[in-house]
């Protein structure tokens, strides 16, 4: 419940960023360089005199959006791939080898390579973050389909001459929803982290578009002088990812009774 | 047994093939002239043309693919744009720090995370469980650079217990090397520990619900025996699997951690290559890292044979 | 007079969460040395909970409310961890229902037995321990004890694994052995051997046995004393002979009455135009390991039979006999490698597209597990109407059919709007039957359709099948491992063993004058002594 409230606060503060903080996240004023957190600069200011508080709130808009979009795309394509692989043997062979290959590439490297070749933009960053997640979803859904396919009620549907795609839609897909929702929340969390890592490695959004990733990246250079430049966006980022992960755990406990059922001791 | 290892080796080939194809397509399908990307932005027109010839860029995609694959297969990963050195020798030069860091991290993780997960499962919903699970969810959520900088700030800058940055080879100065590697290893291992302790806990909980655990209980004796002698060996397969899959996370973490601690390893090489737009090096690193991942998972498949007597065909 | 080994006095066990509901209510029972005491009841009667309380191994969510358990002079309800560590395995041991999952899959069989000796006889040397394990493996008649010692559980059959569990239970010659449905998961012939083993071991080792079962056949076979449980209470107890001959309590009477009796019907005259005509069906499964080494299993080996219109053909066999493969082949989920399969006058193996769809609609199946054969996420009404609607029946008519069928299987019409989990196992099986019949099939395949049900429910569902068959006039392939069930519903019986048809003939002939040695073995293995003259 706490997690839900916290997440609501983070999302709300990102949406209402312009109203909460009057400071322009982009305005540069050398006079105010490296200010300590105070009532004027709630989270301090960076080497260009920009207000960290405002940058963190505005950055939330980009970071949350990137996380959400990547998770949605990964869930969609992963589910599609998993359903196809679970249903057609020939596709399965090819698709799952491709997925194995994608899994073998470390996700940060893959994302970095994509962004550095195509150039940073909302689309390229979302795509770069979502591609490494697709194989995980695909494997999950494929495994679910293969299990559900053996259920007697699916045999019953086949014996009633119900078309294959309807069986898939009515009897197999609904069984995949619960694990998918759980996986989605984990992907959302990890996508927000990935955006930050890309920013940190210098292949994220350009600094005119504040995101948690590049606010932290810019704070790096001044780390020893002004640790708050990293600390506050870092805390915001961590709390968001933490709450999403906690929600994911709760969802799993609710939706996946397998582990909860083995309470017996 | 030997036959099984052989077939697993064969199965690893298509995976590497997919990785290589992906890397190939990534460059050809992205906007921009591949010749310029490979030769570097500051290359002369002549250099660009010679790259174009060498890669067969004026020919069909199929010819390019065959050409490229044969080059990669023969270990020719091209030259770095920045230093003009062969990519493979650049990678070899930077291997040691990364290997040292990864080894220390894996040892630290496995030694701590598996018992942590087991104890959490055994004391389900007790305070030990809460502590471990809280650690795990935080470890998952806090980015490694935040952990790294916090550790540096607290232990190196304020307390002055350990060096802030850098790397010392264990062959030159073992003690200094350990002092330098300990903070990055802790930083890197936190995510990994979170992952492994969670999976250990979950799979042990699942196994504690199995019928044979009841049989073991009915035998009498001390209850702890059930955890260490019955539950843990059965959970080993899932734990080992996750250690293997976690290698991918570890590699991604290496890139970030080496950058935080300024360690001249493969991760640092990756960052330099990206910032210098040195695509041949990036490409070589992806291939090498993926190869390592496949190799480790291959080893793990073989470990299964030892851990689980049921897997034997 | 023998001494009592276990005395349970006024034991009550309740649920943790909704306090008040008692799963075991004021139960008292006594087990004597060298006697087999049977605790019989249907699912949910509290019999297994009672037995697990003796070892203090209550499943999660349950708690002891009151009562005493005296085991060989030890008070068990108040036993602490140290006492339990000593008593479990040494004074009381347990044999469980599921031999397939009761053994640690990654530990050698010998080590699992040896573990008990290590715990309770720490001074025993390793040579001596090994000798004792070999002796135990021999005691339970396992073939080749030295090889079994080194085997992993998955390398043994279900019956062999159960013998290992029994060897474990015997290892320290405990005063009491609790056996919870020890033969339920086993084939009949194996069941008979295991029950014989219990008797033999009990007389040799001075133990008392508490045997939990739902099967009065088992009671007749081995029990000295019987306790009958219903809804958490003991409703009747006494010597086995008394209870079987003159049951007092109505529940006991209904249980005994529900045990399928032989009841043969006169076979139908053979028809000239059989509905199904199978000739020399062959199907070989090839399993391929990673190494490419192949293993071939002949699931069907020259199987020939006919089913006439309106006839019920029983297929009887143990696990692995190929009876389920036969069902899948008839459903055209599998294609036979060889042989002819004529169904409804067509070559069924050649059907494609529209013809295949029509065929499937004409052949419907009722599955074994009523908890898995309905989609848990769809309302019953959707499950009942989906098939007809997909096959061109209007929605209104499909709903009409569903209502009519719900009436016919004695379920309220508002079941349409409820989810499967709101129904009991028996009710779900009725829904499954209604779902199959909504397609107006000409052939119904029932694959162990009553095996997962309690005996009293089993009798009702069998009667339902009978009535529906008369009303709708379908033919039926009735697959079961239980010969008593087969005798109740089948016109003819086909006995299968390892993919082959051993014998086929009118039900009465099969039971009273079996020709094949295997059929005789099957019939002799049926627990209990049954009157082979027709009941009605």
UniProtKB/TrEMBL annotation, chain B:
SUPFAM superfamilies: MetI-like. Belongs to the binding-protein-dependent transport system permease family. The keyword Transit peptide does not apply. Its main location: membrane. It comes from Tianweitania populi. It is found in: Cell membrane. The chain crosses the membrane at residues 99-122, 134-157, 177-196, 235-261, 281-307. Signal peptide: none annotated. InterPro entries: BPD_transp_1_N, MetI-like, MetI-like_sf. It is a multi-pass membrane protein. One of its GO terms (molecular function) is dipeptide transmembrane transporter activity. This is ABC transporter permease. Pfam families: BPD_transp_1 (PF00528), BPD_transp_1_N (PF19300). Keywords: Cell membrane, Membrane, Transmembrane, Transmembrane helix, Transport. The keyword Transmembrane helix applies. One of its GO terms (cellular component) is plasma membrane.
UniProtKB/TrEMBL annotation, chain C:
Signal peptide: none annotated. Keywords: ATP-binding, Nucleotide-binding, Transport. It is a peripheral membrane protein. GO terms for molecular function: ATP binding; ATP hydrolysis activity. It holds the Pfam family oligo_HPY. It is found in: Cell inner membrane. GO terms for cellular component: plasma membrane. Residues 6-256, 278-523 form the ABC transporter domain. InterPro entries: AAA+_ATPase, ABC_transp_ATP-bind, ABC_transporter-like_ATP-bd, ABC_transporter-like_CS, Oligopep_ABC_C, P-loop_NTPase. One of its GO terms (biological process) is peptide transport. It comes from the Bacteria. Belongs to the ABC transporter superfamily. This is ABC transporter ATP-binding protein. It comes from Tianweitania populi.
